[in-house]
Amino acid sequence: MRHLLVLLLSGGCALLGMSALPASGAESPQPPQPPQPPQSSQPQLRWPHGARVAVSLSYDDALDSQLDVALPALQRHGLKASFYLQLSHPSVERRLGAWRRAARQGHELGNHSLFHQCAGSTPGHDWVTPQRDLDHTSAAQMRDQVLTANAMLYAIDGERERTYTVPCGETLASGEDYLALIAPAFLGMKVGGELAVTARAALQPAAVPVRAPVGLSGAQLIALVRSAAADGDLVNLTFHGVGGDYLSISAQAHEELLAYLASHRDQYWTTTFRNIMRHVQAQNQRPGTP
User: Looking at per-residue confidence, does 98 or 222 come out higher?
Assistant: First the structure.
């Protein structure tokens, strides 16, 4: 059976919090053992080159540490990632050339909305400003803003196909779910939910599960990857700052994770979330595919 692991390394508001993993058993990143297939008759996801797990490394919010730390590390290891841009973030304009270079290098520029609206009523969201409060933004306004962000991204990289990460994992705009209004514009959208999806039929492109670990060591991240690879076909992790900014992991932890994935290319298909969703779509459309 093939498995999908989607790792999103990002810089912004955590979609779902995750506490640190226990250190036991995580200090020696040995090659993962083949997971036992779940007892299910549902068709499984299959990946190129015989890989058991597809890995999408992603980074939210357009933070400087992603360009300064994460992107050079990805390039050194020959890995491709998805960067979800908050289009109003100052670094988009200030470092536009660097984001364009990232796209030319084969990385995905994903949509993370114009203004990163989150609900001010959520505990701990005292940082939400009134003009960017999802509680007081209509679903129609969110639709217009998200689609405008797609147009802006097209002006940056010339790509038409997009994926979306929901800011804070919150989908209700003034009490109405806005995702149905934008779903046709995206190959896939990341929200919240369980860590693993175990069959192709269970993968809903408009609601792909995602979690956002903060502060884990490299050994803990590797242990999380190995555990997730044994549990399901899709695992989606979002990181924010890398060696800086906020909701961060250290540069060392990031480096250790990339080194592990790069040294196990026969087991992990590491690519952008857009490529993964394209591959899933192609499997679903292929006649006679189980």
Answer: 98
